[in-house]
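The records we work with from here on pair a chain with its fold. Here is one such record, which you should read through line by line:
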Amino acid sequence: MIRIKICGLTSKEDIHLCASAGVDALGFVVEYPIPVPWNLERKTALQLMASVPPFVTSVIVVGDDPDEVLAITDMLRPNVVQLHGREPLDTTERLITKLKSLGVQVIKALRFSVRRGELNYDISDPVAACRSLADAGVDGVVLDSMTDSRPAGTGKSFDWKIARLIRDEVNTPVILAGGLNAENVRRAISEVRPYGVDVITGVESPIGKKDPSKVKEFIKEARWGYYESLNQWSHSPE
């Protein structure tokens, strides 16, 4: 089954909307070092996360400063920590060990920079980076897009062939993000075969506010995309 995460929750109303629609995980951006529309102070995040219902996974999205990441995690105790900054690989590997000692799972974002139609890697060799992260015990990798103005939530897709290559070459769950919406998520699932999909701006109107119809349509299309692809996958070589 494809797993669906909706990120950038900022209100109890939107938490209820997404959980009622059948999402698997909810993401809370907490004290992110670069200004983004979904940023929460840790105390606010704690209050919101208390309203997440049972069997829905809570994910905090944090980045960069290892000490702050650990302090935020220790206070909030989410199910999963998503490292979404420019943490070097060696720092990430050390953080994985420390975060797991707090009883949480860890996923790491690798970002693909979209500029003037060109694609640049946030990390020079993403396949090698994912292998190193897998060896370090990471629980999954998020493949996302970034622009000069925004580190995530760009609404822009990157080349899914890269995501499929990582999915085929690395033995760790791949979560596809970056520019997903109800119009393209079926094709994304067919082409990449990810463990999960992650969406933020594709289910919002305006930015920062979840749109009920977009949320429901995205989840429906992702579920149908998975089921439609089962037969295709069963006849495709791994």
